[in-house]
Amino acid sequence: MKPVMALVGRPNVGKSTLFNRLTKSRDAIVADFAGLTRDRHYGNAKHGKHEFIVIDTGGFEPTAESGIYMEMAKQTRQAVAEADVVIFVVDARGGLSAQDYDIAKYLRKLGKPTVLTANKAEGMTEGVQLTEFYELGLGEVHAISAAHGQGIRSLVEEALAPLGLSEEDEEETAPDPTVIKLAVAGRPNVGKSTLINTWLGEERLVAFDLPGTTRDAITVPFERNGQKFELIDTAGLRRKGKVFEAIEKFSVVKTLQAIESANVVLLLLDATQGVTDQDAHIAGYILESGRAVVLAVNKWDAVDEYQREQVHRQIETRLAFLKFATMHLISAKKRQGLGPVWQSIAAAHRSAMIKMPTPVLTRLLLEAVAFQQPKRAGMFRPKLRYAHQGGMNPPVIVVHGNSLEHVTDSYKRFLEGRFRAEFKLVGTPLRVEMKTSHNPYADKD
User: Fold this and answer.
1) What are the residue boundaries of the structural domains of the chain, listed by start?
2) Could you give the CA distance from residue 148 to residue 143 in angstroms, rounded to a whole number?
């Protein structure tokens, strides 16, 4: 799974600027989950072959005891708990503050790998101005300028070094193609662990009536009717009698990692709560990751007819981009409606891993063009010549031809519909990519 890097520091030291620099996009992933402040963001980043998740936090005041600063401190502690390595950002121009000492003391106590980073160090002589930061007792000080991009590469290499990442790590054992990796995702307290407990027929996962009992993404081997599964739940496996901490432990990072490591994602909704912004964020990330998805609305037995109608409307409007997914109405606690869910999971996996022959794709493409040609763009009309498969999970179809940059999104959706109908694709995104052929005479006089 992707390692996690948390950016920590007092307000206005440049954490968000560094986040932007690392992720190359301010809104790579914005997690608007319950209990998370707007100052806590999650983003994907890449260094060489290594991908990792970056968490941007609000200003950290470890000693805050009330108000918004206490809430921000709570969220920062959660980010640090989720992280594999912490980047402690200080202000090279502003110098040390009492708050920096408090943060350093907290990080030293945790003992988690920490890289001390002095931001806004452009044009400064490191050996002189940065000496005072060694007082924090966190080792070497790395001078950077997030705004100007100076020192970022060496900082990331230093941060990833304690994680033991190497080229060998990239060459892991190939997964068994016969095993379906199924992730169960959803908001806190929608019944994820209860559902898996019902499937397994035993209390393998903690089901506790408190949002956020879950801590880590775990994998549970499971077999049904001869088909092997790996159930990935964003829940921690507990020993019986373990005392629960009555605090929010829902981990956004673990949900994102579980989705990325799965073949199929079961997105669980709560009928009593309707479709919330949180559900839409999770659904959006599933789509962005290209994973096959099945929708299940849990606690259907606990709502009346009016609420059921509202849920249907909300799914049609707020989750319209998942219209290719099959929806099921279930009750995990009462074991109602669970059988058909497995059929949809199998169908979604089949669709995600399907092999589409080039001759069939090309025939479908030419038939679609004969039925409806793409619109002209000025003097030219895009010429679609042939198609082939470019990947699986999600399936990718690459179309070759001339002037394809002028093909409209609506025409791509038209083609997608034709391909979906022919191969009976359900529950998986389908990506249609256009590749314009190079004219060998274009550069000649």
Assistant:
1) 4-169, 180-352, 358-436
2) 12
Position 209 confidence tier, pLDDT thresholds 50, 70, 90 = very low
pLDDT digits (tens, 9 = 90+) for 328-376: 999 988 888 988 999 999 999 999 999 999 999 999 999 999 999 988 8
Which stretch of DSSP H or E encloses residue 320? none
CATH topology for 4-169? Rossmann fold (3.40.50)
Tell me, yes or no, if the two domains 180-352 and 358-436 fold the same way. no
Per the rule left: phi > 0, alpha: psi between -120 and 50, beta: everything else, 280 is alpha
Among 7, 95, 13, smallest CA distance to 45 is for 7
User: Domain spanning 180-352 has what CATH number?
Assistant: 3.40.50.300
The per-residue DSSP string of 56-123 comes to: E-----TT--SHHHHHHHHHHHHHHHH-SEEEEEEETTT---HHHHHHHHHHHHHT--EEEEEES-TT
Q: What is the dihedral of CA 303, 304, 305, 306, to 10 degrees?
A: -90
CA distance 133 to 201: 56
Residue 266's contacts (CB-CB under 8 Å, 6 or more residues apart) are 182, 183, 184, 185, 195, 293, 294, 296, 341, 345
Place of tokens 């399936």: 395
Burial of 2 (0-12, 13-18, 19+ CB in 10 A): middle
- CATH T-level assignment (fold) for domain 358-436: GMP Synthetase; Chain A, domain 3 (3.30.300)
For the chain, give the number of residues.
445
For 125-174, write each residue's pLDDT tens digit: 555 567 888 888 888 889 898 888 888 989 998 888 877 654 444 444 45
Show the tokens assigned to 381: 């009309």
The dihedral through the CA atoms of 439, 442, 444, 445 has a sign that is positive
Q: State the binding site for GTP.
A: 9-16, 56-60, 119-122, 186-193, 233-237, 298-301
Residue type, 303: V
Per-residue pLDDT tens over the stretch 225-249: 888 888 876 543 333 333 333 223 3
Please enumerate, by residue number, every residue annotated as part of a binding site: 9-16, 56-60, 119-122, 186-193, 233-237, 298-301
